[in-house]
Amino acid sequence: MFQLDNVKYKNIINTKQLTIPADTITAVTGPSGSGKSTLLRLLNYLVSPDSGTVSYHGKPFSAWEPTELRRQVMMLPQQPVLFGETVAENLQAGRLFSGREEVSEEKLTAAAQQCMLNKQLSDSAENLSGGEQQRLSLARLLLAGPDVYLLDEPTSALDEDMEWNVMERFLAEARRAAKGVIFVSHAAAMADHFADHTIQSDSFTRGGGLKP
Amino acid sequence: MTENTSIIELSFWQILAAYVFIVLLLVIVRWRKIPREKEILISSLRMTFQLLLMGYVLMFLFENPSPWLTSLIVLFMLSFAIWNIFQRVRGPLSREMKRAIAVSMSIGTILSLLYFNFVVIQFAPWFNPRYFIPIAGMIIGNSMTGITLGVQTLTEHLHSQRSRVEAALMLGATPNQATRKLVNQSFDAAILPTINNMVGAGIVFLPGMMTGQIISGVNPVTAIGYQIAILLGITGAVALSVILFTQLGYKTYFNDRMQLKD
């Protein structure tokens, strides 16, 4: 689990104590600009708090080797990013960045299908629509296989039906593999439906605390 | 082959006549209302002053050759080149970035210079200013241009591709992995002019060193030998200093927690 103690960051994050489980599905909700993405960036060790400590598995971040931690706790930004030209290269990128060996084409195709991306592996990734690139990024993350997924509005570019379907399938796979998911969502209904716990942004922005 | 060793000594009036080209340039920018008059005046004055000064310094050095004086002049040229890079790059440079520029310029040019002088040309004594200083000038000058381009592209790429670099870090990439592509692009952009220089040499333009030697009466084949060697030396020096720079330079954008600095 993640533990935040007396964490303050740039007038955005301010919490006495916050505990977030790392083996279940947690939704982070709140109005836009309320620090939800910043919370994920803190948990990914992409930024460090101005004061206080963040720990994972009881070990403060300062004691973690940063890439080692990020390879266990990976984050997906809201804007999809391409790494390489083809769909296949993009799917393998997470494996390579995290120091894992490449996987077979069957596994690439299976992960793409799991995230409802029906494209050829040799297709150009640049020609994909925004929504397709989001699904490509989700599939890349599934293949990289960390212990915890931090998802920042991972399906914001999809229409509602597709959004629910993709989330359903992604989270089913995460549950099957006993992984933790912390996802930011603007839709309260989605948080209620999918998450085991929900964290409201005011619990980590106003000096509050929460123990789910 | 006979060598014509007589060279026309330019008189004051002949040099003054060459300034007509600057007057032409001034007339053009004034006519087109391009606000560059001040820079043109300052740079042609600076060029004149710096070259005159260098002429007297070289004359003094040739008459009093000394390992200390030669080394001192080369160090001065190097420092001036480094300072010049700081001035030429648009936007502020962090202290770490300045250090990366200084270290890569110094190591890259000095190593190339030593190899070139001791292994390729092999002149004696090793500090002979007639060889050492012009060769140092060419190697330092070209490395300066290369690193300036390298700094420019690296800074721009890290700015425009920040979210991409960050997305790679989020997946557990090291800063090295996260920036590999843009570091390579910066290296490529920085050495491209040097490579193009080799392509055009001899056909599109006669390089300055060769031109000077030929005018001063050196057998063209000898001059070409030197020119080939120096073009290769320049390419090596630019490659070495730019790769050193990119390797040190990208790291200045990260802190010890492997986070991108603000």
From TrEMBL, chain A:
Lineage top rank: taxon: Bacteria
Native source organism of the sequence: Marinococcus halophilus
Domain ABC transporter residues, every copy: 2-210
Protein name: ABC transporter ATP-binding protein
Entry keyword set: ATP-binding, Nucleotide-binding, Transport
InterPro entries found in the cross-reference section: AAA+_ATPase, ABC_transporter-like_ATP-bd, ABC_transporter-like_CS, P-loop_NTPase
Phylogenetic classification of the source organism: Bacteria, Bacillati, Bacillota, Bacilli, Bacillales
GO MF annotation, one: ATP hydrolysis activity
From TrEMBL, chain B:
Primary subcellular site in the record, as a coarse category: membrane
InterPro entries assigned to the protein according to its UniProt record, in alphabetical order: UPF0014_fam (IPR005226)
Topology of this chain in the membrane: Multi-pass membrane protein
GO cellular component terms, semicolon-separated: plasma membrane
Organism field: Marinococcus halophilus
Taxonomic placement: Bacteria, Bacillati, Bacillota, Bacilli, Bacillales
Superkingdom field: Bacteria
Protein name: Iron export ABC transporter permease subunit FetB
Membrane found in the keyword field: yes
Keywords: Membrane, Transmembrane, Transmembrane helix
This protein's record includes keyword Repeat: no
Membrane-traversing stretches: 12-31, 43-62, 68-86, 107-125, 131-154, 189-208, 228-250
A Pfam family hit: UPF0014
Subcellular location: Membrane
Recorded family membership: Belongs to the UPF0014 family.
Signal peptide coordinates: none
